[in-house]
Write the structure tokens for this entry.
Amino acid sequence: MEQVKTTRFGDVDISEHRPISFPLGLPGFPDQKRFVLMEHKPGSPFMWLQSADSPNLAFVVMDPFLIQSNYLQDLPPRDREMVLGKTDTPPLVLTIVNIPHGAPREMTVNLLGPLVIDAEARTGKQVILAGSAYQTRHPVLPE
Amino acid sequence: MLVLTRKINESITIGNDITVQVLGVRGGQVRLGIKAPKETPVNRTEVYESIQRENREAARTPRDLDLLNDMMTTSPRNEPE
């Protein structure tokens, strides 16, 4: 039984957490092509996108619609197609959370570069919504 | 870096399925037309680099998120599920 070694979560069983393939990796991490998505805790808005190949690499991710309920509405056509593709099933969209050391209240989410995941095909990519007004550092908590 | 000189409307081909055409030059600006397969992301470099930077930053996440959970559940912006 294949397991993914992780620094934060010990050994993760792949039959339970089916890996998601990112054929292009992520900007800044071009060689990271397999991740597992894991709950943080029941009821938590946070999830972890854990690299299947680098035990130490994990991103905190969350549902961007919790931050902005009208997220991804009114996108220019090219951006819209990058997110929705041509399929009928709407993809799973997640945003990477950036939590500054020592100042967690100042955490931000990257709304400019959402993760778009096809949960059925187990594939994902990070798209850049270059035609939108979204930012890489959108505050999560009110000032 | 490979350096090529092109005139307006001329193009270059990268690999088997990417072409970059010079559409126009005005002042200090060059307009490019890019044809690439859909799965090949094409971005202005500075925008791509901002995502790279952000990802690298985000990868330095603290291990313990429990503190954050408390914040999120007391935050007025977070609607209960």
About this structure: The radius of gyration of chain B is 22 Å. The CA atoms of residues 17 and 37 of chain B lie 7 Å apart. Residues 75-81 of chain B have pLDDT under 50 and may be disordered.
